[in-house]
Amino acid sequence: MKKLFYINLLFIIFRISGAQDTIYVDLENPTYEEIPASRIFEKIEYIPLETPQDERLKKDVVIMNDEIKVESLKITHLKKGLTKFHVTDRYIVALASFDAYLFDRTGRFVRQISSQGKGPDEYGFRTVGFDGETNMVYAEDGGSNILKCINIETNKVESIVKKPIRIKSNKEAVTKISFSKKEDNFYAISAPWRIKENRYIGFNNNTTGKDATKLIVFDKDGNIIKAFRNYLEYEDITLEIPMQNGIFYIYDQKTYFKEFLYNDTVFQVDEKNATPHIVFRLGDKQPSYSYREDEEYNRGKIFITYVYENSLYVVFNYFIYNEFSFRPDVVHTGYYDKKNRKTHVSLNPDHKSGYKLDGIPARFYPTNHNGLGELTGEIFPEELTKHKDEISAENQDLFMNLRENDNPIVIVGKLKD
Fold first, then answer.
1. Which of residues 199 and 320 earns the better pLDDT score?
2. CA-CA distance, 161 to 137, in Å (whole number)?
3. Does the first or last residue of the chain, that is N or C, have fewer Cβ atoms within 10 Å of its Cβ?
């Protein structure tokens, strides 16, 4: 009996210690304020991207010069805000869904990264992700489970990664995402996250509403190492096919994951376990996964679109749902201070989203990160050209020759640590 008591006591201590390690971010009663970027960032860098031969990398379309096969671009498929910027210590990679472009860290244009086509170093469908450690762009070949890994320095396909094939019993999911006439199809993973050599983890989009798998650890040949169960279901009432990468980041040499939009929890994940690490307390603004396609049910709910952390802060973005509208007054950035356990959320008098920048009439709205503790966002030139008189003297030289239709300015913020 005494032995059983000690076993139960150890179990309770283990559960309590695990709970103490969980970070709770309070979004029910945060401090709303205008947040200066200088409060949490030790350095802000502005990198205007070169615009070759009067062509533009715009909000809704990516165009480069004639040497870069302009005719191969699928212009009508590119939508506003679709370009995502990845920054390394040497390069800036612009992924624009169907195309990708390479700049050096100073913003000088280098070239288009591969292109759509049937050649050995081309891809058949779209670019989906980037691995900053290996300098590889992931691109789908279309109609198969193959991801081509394109080295941005050599501009060649150096390897492939295969998405795991679904189990045959899941017929409903196979039919929903099928791009071919094969009986079996692959899991709905958009881009993998490499956790170590020949080990990847992928977020499986719940395309049918009843998919039983959320995360999959697999090798480059598509062999499943571990599958993490999905316990959430929703009624599939639209033709929408969600294809998100999921939110992944590295902190303290561990990998963390959050499902895009609907989940309130960040998990630490590895080849064996998925452990809750950060929980966002949303109260009555918690969106319903079960009714995720019901616009009336989720009106006024909080949807978290981005999260990252270091030793001092958890930074995040969220919007409040209102008829599929990303209205400026309901889009927020914020951070959780790990030391004093307080949550701060942006509430800006100009209704713009992001952290206040010194001497720049724009906001820093981070949407990506790298392994250097840097967060990245972008400013489109028209934001600055319309308010040139508000640019401080120290920044005038940087933006002196800026034109409204020039390529974006990439913002890189180094978090205090």
1. 199
2. 12
3. N
